[in-house]
Amino acid sequence: MSKKYFTPHEANSLIPYIRMDLFLLQEVKREFKRKAALLRELRYEYEQLSLDPPEERLFELEASMEFLHMEAKTLTDSIRMKGAQLKDVDHGVVDFPALLNGKEVLLCWRQGEEHIQYYHGDGTGYCGRRPLPQDAELG
Description:
49% helix; alpha+beta; 5-stranded antiparallel beta sheet
């Protein structure tokens, strides 16, 4: 399978879908962290009392965390299957492979931005973002 390269227009057309996947993924991550903290607290409290924690409650929390993990994988797979690369869930950074004047680059979008305005090289990451040149040949 050949590598997919995006034009800014093609990548921008996916932003509404990426935005929704990312929002849901962030919600799942927050819920997972909340349940993980609850699970730690529950185990700690029972450990301090030298008692075994209630197995049903532990199983319930662990099962719901496993479900959240599967949901997160589905959402990250959804982004990847669109051809995008999820770089940072918390900051909402997503890259799209592109060609700029014949050179491989990544079109870079961050949650809160209306459309793609930046790019960077594969090795530079978010900190190396530069504005898309107006006269660039993108393909």
